[in-house]
Amino acid sequence: MPGLPEIFPELHTQRLDLIEITTQHLQDLYHLFTNPQVTEFYQVIPLQEPGDAQKIVGMLSQRFKDKTGIRWGIAPKGESHLIGTIGYNTFTRGHRSTIAFALLPEYWGKGYITEAIAAIVQFGFDVLKVNRIEAEVLPGNMASEIVLRKNGFHHEGLLRQWMLWDDTHYDINMYALLKDDMNHK
Q1: Full-prediction pTM beyond 0.70?
Q2: DSSP 3-state assignment of 148?
Q3: Which pLDDT score, from 0 to 100, does residue 1 have?
């Protein structure tokens, strides 16, 4: 059955390198996940200082090791600092996966997330052999909804109190892209 490789796979697009997130990125993660514009619609472990981002690195590394998820750091082509993250929070081999992404505001509206989503969608269908890729979007996050539609995702509906975070239930809009959708483009 197909799945995640043993060695972390880097992906490359015209303008981006999708790379493994390591301890060298603690400051980048802190900068990203303490930005109120980024976290307005994105639930994240609270960070008080850059070293706290080690919890995120550890969690992402464990998901990859356990073969249950993968998260790339988004870096400008040829650079090692991160401007965002993207990946699969959950992954069921041969069935479905859920993507998540975050990007620093100064890079919004320039097509970077559209480019990164296209790369990981191809990885999901070609390497992971999933049939369905989902994205859970909090109501009001219009920017994420627009970028998902640009990548062919379809809005399937509002799931009431679908997400539980920090003892609070949240509604989410479910978006999905099926492998068959890609065959009809």
Answers
A1: yes
A2: helix
A3: 46
What mean pLDDT is predicted for residues 165-178?
93
**Rounded distance, CA 183 to CA 53, Å?**
39
Partners of 75 in beta bridges: 17
Q: 165: pLDDT confidence band, cut at 50, 70 and 90?
A: confident
Quote the pLDDT of residue 92.
85
Mean pLDDT on 131-150:
96
* Mean pLDDT for the chain overall: 93
Residues in a beta bridge with 103 = 84
CB of 136 closer than 8 Å to CB of 156: no
Domain ranges, ordered by start, for the chain: 11-131
Amino acid letter, residue 173: N
What integer pLDDT is reported at residue 131 of this predicted model? 95
Please give the CATH number for the structural domain made up of 11-131: 3.40.630.30
Show contacts of 35-43: CB within 8 Å, 24+ apart.
Answer: 35/104, 35/105, 37/105, 38/102, 38/103, 38/104, 38/105, 40/141, 41/137, 41/138, 41/140, 41/141, 41/144, 42/100, 42/102, 43/163, 43/165, 43/166, 43/170
Q: What share of the chain is helix, strand, coil (3-state, %, to 5)?
A: 35, 30, 35
- Cα separation of 95 and 85, whole Å? 23
The two structure tokens encoding residue 152: 């062919």
Instruction: Report d(CA 170, CA 40) in Å as an integer.
Output: 13
